[in-house]
Write a structure and sequence with these properties.
Layout (H helix, E strand, L loop, with lengths): L10 H10 L7 H11 L1 H8 L16 H41 L14 H17 L3 H9 L10 H7 L2 H10 L2 H10 L4 H19 L33 H12 L6 H15 L3 H7 L9 H4 L6
Helix pairs in contact: 3-4, 4-7, 4-9, 4-10, 4-11, 4-12, 8-10
Length: about 300
Amino acid sequence: MTRYLKPSTSSAEQLNLLKRRGLAIPDPERAAWYLQRIGYYRLMGYLFPQRLPLSDDYLPGASIVDAIETYELDCGLRKLVMEAVGHIEIAVKSRVTNHFTLTYGPFGHQVASSVAFDPAWHEEWMGVLGAEVRRSKETFLLHYKTKYTNPPFPLVPLWMASEVMSFGTTSRFYGALHPADQKRIAHDFALRVPVLKNWLHYTLVVRNVAAHHGRLWNRELGVRPVRPHGRPWSETVTPFPTARCFYMLLVLRYLLGFTTADVDDWRRRVTRLLESYLKDDRRIDAMGAGPGWQAHPLWLGTGQGG
């Protein structure tokens, strides 16, 4: 076992260390201002691509300005991603709730046989959902609790529960549904069931990273979105790597088309943000974009699902 012995250092000491390692710091006051407000460790995530391979030293021409600009891009990107995910979450909950309750009734989710997974999974899922309902202070839930005793609170209708259900709980529920139920819901998004299941899980991971102020830029999230079948999403037509940011934005942009959001307005704002940053091939590659990404059919919304 190796003991961690690195000491705490001041902003000035951190800047001196970066200078000794070859990083250009043209405006030390501005650099110190950022270090004090976002932290050295967080900034390192944006500095790392400028380091020499297998070294703490930096490449020729490396600058803290590049890292700060990338950090600001990432902040703006997180806000736009969270905006999109919010709309997508609401649309998914609505589709799942409507299809499910029309088939199984308002309390059908409380019956283990209404899902394809085993009763032990259903019991655990109901426990999570019950905890989410109990934690909520929504007036409509308090009304149910005081007026109805059969079934007793927190066993509320699915359309009530879905209002306070987390995106993770919703995604798990969709994944547990019977294939016929999954197919009807996936049809509403013009996707095949495996694609929708994967994209819901992927969107959840993206949402959790963004919600906790994690880095989205130049990061692999541990789960990748699958490519739908069909030419618009093929690697030939859409050669963007699935592990990078731009493909994530394509997925969100597609799903956003099935919500109440103004998709074109969201896309334009994302485009403006990216265009202000993607000034060279290195940055474009780090985003997983490519030449002409602004006019790609899937980004413009002229592609199809799969």
